[in-house]
Specification:
The complex is a heterotrimer of chains A (322), B (269) and C (258).
Chain A: H1 2-18, E1 25-31, H2 36-48, E2 55-61, H3 64-72, E3 79-81, H4 85-93, E4 109-120, E5 140-141, H5 149-164, H6 169-180, E6 183-185, H7 190-198, E7 204-208, H8 209-217, E8 222-225, E9 232-239, H9 246-256, H10 259-267, E10 271-272, H11 297-306, H12 312-319
Parallel strand pairs in A: 1-2, 1-3, 5-6, 5-7
Antiparallel strand pairs in A: 3-9, 4-7, 4-8, 4-9, 4-10
Helix pairs in contact in A: 2-10, 3-4, 5-6, 6-12
Chain B: H1 2-16, H2 18-45, H3 55-87, H4 94-101, H5 103-106, H6 109-120, H7 134-159, H8 162-170, H9 175-204, H10 207-212, H11 223-232, H12 236-264
Helix pairs in contact in B: 3-7, 3-9, 6-7, 7-9, 8-9, 9-12, 11-12
Chain C: H1 2-30, H2 35-42, H3 45-77, H4 84-96, H5 99-110, H6 125-135, H7 138-151, H8 154-161, H9 166-195, H10 198-203, H11 214-223, H12 227-251
Classes of the chains: A alpha/beta (322), B mainly alpha (269), C mainly alpha (258).
Chain lengths: 322, 269, 258
């Protein structure tokens, strides 16, 4: 009996040892939760190019804030792709990403999107504007802004939407407080939020447009509404300063900005940063679209809304769902 | 001859003295590195005690403790019933049922959660959707704690001397009286032990709960998920603080159950 | 008489609704469309890698905890470990701790900024190994200690007076007495290591193909709407669990049923 189990143990160990040595470069990509499919396709396409020949990838996907903190805590990454700029900035402050990471043509961004309302098929509750979300009994799902990048975009979209409708900043903050009283679940990441919504919770899920398109492509019974006033989401990508394969990592990031790669992003529901790649795809432009600059820029916003101790959202999170 | 025997027994003693040192030494190092050091780091880095008294944290704590007590109680009853069926009853396939009781020990918790979700979740074929509810949490916790009371009560029931029961019956006691007066006191310590184990397990459960509960704050967020959430929000100090609180609380409850058990068996010592 | 049947019905009904029905249902759902799609789902590179990671973690944790388990049991029972009550409690700690707390403790110790931080332990396989060893630590010790207590020291002392060395005494006298208890402990350790989820969830970087165990893979597939993939991987784990269950039944100290 013992001899058999010993033999079994050795047999199980052998495959582990066998794959120890792999040839060629291996890049580690640490990304936020939603672009998994897209990067799968992009990596395959990259490997067919001369620059990507012989390069293999390890990939990790999770909530943007969580992933950023993991890299800061020791997760060895070559390329990081997060939901929003502050998740890269925090790594710059820890000397894990070079200070000039966003000094290129695209300011470090690789894709765009907008915040949308994901609703049940047929939009039974007729939710079209930010004010509609405050109708009595409406249940909202949005991820936790302290873990999910997508959630922070949602907050700023709501805040900016209120500003656009003529409210003062104080009234807009008040709107956020009211909105958060309608929030019934705060999952960790954007992807998890979609799960929660599809499992039957809530009337509306605040999400990236690309996540809504992902759900529809998977045949899920949802549709989405882009409110008139919404924020333009811009997702950064950067090479880490601790990368041991900077040449290949930079080649990959350059590849992500080629027409071919941007078309792949578009097919997966992301708005490309290269205008030519958007041809043939339907990405509606909303009349009251605004960027993060309209609400003050990330540096100000992070401090005012998302500081873990003094941020406005800390108050509102506690009041939700109860 | 005597001198030789003495010489023989002296030499092994000298050689033997190395063994205790080795096993104690190695065990101590292993335990310290694997268990004690990380826990020390946890205690050291626990701060942000303010985070532990927020409404969300207290809600998670209350929910966890409440659910775990319910789970311990349900298991006390169901576990005893199942143990009884396995020991005192006789039917075809009993061996299989006995093996089945160990399944929650062997099955990964995430798989347990997934199987419960498949049958009693959103796509349930029998129309029972317990996902994102406290019932779903209860279900998951009952699943993983099933074996505890059964396995502590079984051996005791097995060893029980039937003579007392037969004597009681011959004196005219009904079955229920017999159970209450003779059997129950004998198995109560075991039931309490099993219930304590079930309680401890339920308090810390994560894998079975994480898919089923939806982690809705104030509704279905248990402490293990709350700690996970704090950690993911970058508040590892607060997460550590919450962990320490739940550890001390469940420690306290376990001590209480242990004291109850000792009080119950006070006459046997 | 009806009381007996009622009890039997209630107990078996409880087991059926809680245990058998969900498990049976998931097997049925998984193989609904035949074995083909399941095999395909289970042999994707990511799935195979995840299985490999799980097996590697188990292959390291089980021998380590077995050797330690026997040594520690000997130290507790035979060599009167000073403060053996404390040692017993420490050995039992992993059973009382939530896996998330275990992962958190490891993260705080070995993560960047921790006392032993910056050495590539967390978010990599070594961290997951440590987590798996932690949670599966107690089982061999707990099974061997009662047996050692029960068999007493007479035989070992007799062997010593006959001139046997410590190693010989162990091999010829102690080991034969404890080997079945050890085997049972090994099976419990294996089951626990295979099924670990919470602790590795915290310390893994979820690098698909490197630090994603099969349990993490199940969660990932489910959250990506790939129920086929999730169920298939879950079935693999369930089959491994049943194999260990079989071994557990064979090796369990025989008592408790008619």
């Amino acid at each position: 009996m013992r001899r058999i189990s010993l033999a079994l143990l050795v047999a199980l160990l052998l495959p582990a040892l066998a794959t120890g040595a792999s040839k060629g470069t291996r890049l580690t990509l640490v990304a936020y939760s939603t672009p998994k499919d897209a990067y799968g396709q992009l990596i395959s396409a990259f490997r067919k190019t001369p620059a990507g020949n012989g390069v293999s990838f390890s990939q990790s996907y999770g909530a943007s804030g969580e992933q950023s903190r993991a890299v800061a805590a020791g997760l060895a990454a070559d390329v990081v792709a997060f939901s929003l700029e502050p998740d890269v900035t925090s790594l710059v402050q820890k000397n894990l990403v070079a200070k000039n990471w966003n000094k290129d043509t695209y300011k470090g961004m690789v894709t765009r999107s907008v915040v949308v309302f994901v609703v049940r098929d047929g939009n039974p509750k007729k939710l079209k504007t930010w004010n509609d979300l405050l109708k009595p009994g409406i249940q909202v799902i949005t991820p936790n802004p302290f873990t999910s990048g997508g959630a922070r975009w949602n907050v700023m979209a709501a805040y900016g939407g209120a500003l656009r409708s003529g409210k003062t900043p104080a009234q807009a903050v008040d709107y956020l407080g009211k909105l958060w009283k309608h929030v019934v679940a705060q999952p960790t990441s954007a992807r998890e939020g979609l799960q929660t919504f599809l499992a039957g919770r809530g009337d509306v899920f605040l999400a990236y447009e690309n996540e809504a398109l992902f759900a529809r492509r998977r045949g899920q019974p949802v549709q989405f509404v882009i409110p008139k006033a919404t924020i333009l989401i811009e997702n950064p990508v950067a090479v880490t300063s601790i990368s041991k394969h900077k040449a290949e990592a930079n080649a990959f990031v350059r590849f992500l900005h080629t027409l071919e790669a941007q078309k792949i992003f578009a097919q997966n529901g992301y708005r490309p940063v290269v205008p030519a790649a958007a041809r043939g795809f339907n990405f509606p432009v909303r009349p009251q679209l605004f960027t993060i600059k309209y609400v003050g820029g990330w540096a100000k916003v992070e401090k005012k809304f998302f500081d873990p101790k003094t941020g406005i959202m800390v108050r509102f999170i506690g009041s939700s769902g109860g | 001859m005597a001198a030789n025997a003495e010489a023989l027994s002296a030499a092994p003693a000298a050689r033997r003295s190395l063994a205790p040192g080795l096993s104690i030494g190695l065990s101590t190092v292993y335990l310290s590195v694997i268990v004690l050091l990380p826990l020390a780091a946890l205690g050291w880095k626990a701060h942000g005690w303010g985070a532990v008294s927020t409404p969300q944290a207290t809600a998670a704590l209350k929910l966890t403790l409440g659910l775990s007590l319910v789970v311990a109680l349900v298991n006390a009853v169901a576990g005893t019933a199942i143990a009884w069926t396995l020991v005192r009853d006789r039917f075809a396939g009993q061996g299989l049922v006995n093996a089945l009781v160990d399944l929650p020990f062997a099955l990964p918790t995430i798989v347990a959660g997934l199987t419960l979700l498949a049958l009693y979740g959103p796509k349930s074929p029998v129309g029972i959707n317990a996902a994102f509810t406290r019932w779903g949490l209860l279900l998951a916790l009952l699943f993983v704690t099933l074996p505890f009371v059964v396995r502590t009560v079984q051996p005791v029931l097995f060893e029980l001397d039937r003579e007392l029961e037969d004597a009681a019956a011959s004196l005219g006691a009904g079955r229920f009286t017999t159970f209450l007066r003779i059997i129950f006191p004998s198995i109560l310590p075991a039931v309490l032990s099993g219930a304590a184990l079930a309680f401890a397990r339920a308090v810390g459960e994560f894998g079975a709960v994480v898919l089923m509960s939806g982690n809705l704050p104030f509704k279905t967020e248990v402490v293990s998920v709350y700690v996970f959430g704090r950690l993911e929000s970058g508040d590892s100090g607060g997460a550590a603080a919450a962990s320490v609180v739940i550890l001390l609380t469940s420690f306290g409850v376990l001590l209480a159950i242990g004291a109850l058990r000792r009080w119950v068996t006070r006459h046997d010592r | 008489m009806t009381a007996k049947y009622a009890l039997r019905f209630a107990s078996l009904g409880y087991l059926a609704l809680l245990l058998v029905a969900p498990l049976g249902f998931i097997f049925w759902r998984t193989f609904e469309h035949g074995v083909g799609p399941v095999w395909a789902a289970v042999t994707t590179p990511d799935a195979l890698h995840a299985l490999k990671v799980t097996l590697v973690l188990t292959a390291i944790a089980v021998p380590a905890n077995t050797i330690f388990g026997v040594l520690c049991a000997l130290a507790i029972v035979r060599h009167r470990y000073p403060g053996s009550g404390i040692v017993n409690a420490v050995v039992d700690l992993p059973l009382a701790l939530s896996p998330v707390v275990v992962g958190l403790a490891l993260l705080l110790l070995y993560g960047r900024g921790g006392w032993l931080g910056g050495h590539g332990i967390v978010f990599a396989l070594p961290g997951m190994v440590l987590a798996t060893i932690f949670v599966s630590l107690p089982f061999v010790v707990r099974e061997v200690v009662p047996v050692l207590r029960e068999i007493g020291t007479e035989q070992e002392q007799a062997a010593a007076t006959l001139g046997a060395s410590a190693l010989q005494t162990f091999r010829r006298v102690t080991w034969p007495a404890i080997r079945w208890a050890t085997a049972y402990g090994v099976v419990l350790t294996t089951a626990r290591a295979l099924g670990e989820f919470g602790a590795v969830s915290v310390v893994s970087g979820r690098l698909a193909g490197q630090t994603e165990s099969l349990t993490l893979y199940v969660q990932d597939r489910y959250q990506s709407f790939d129920t086929t993939g999730a169920y298939a991987a879950a079935v693999v784990l369930a089959l491994l669990a049943m194999a260990t269950l079989l071994l557990m039944t064979r090796l369990r100290p025989k008592e408790g049923i008619q």
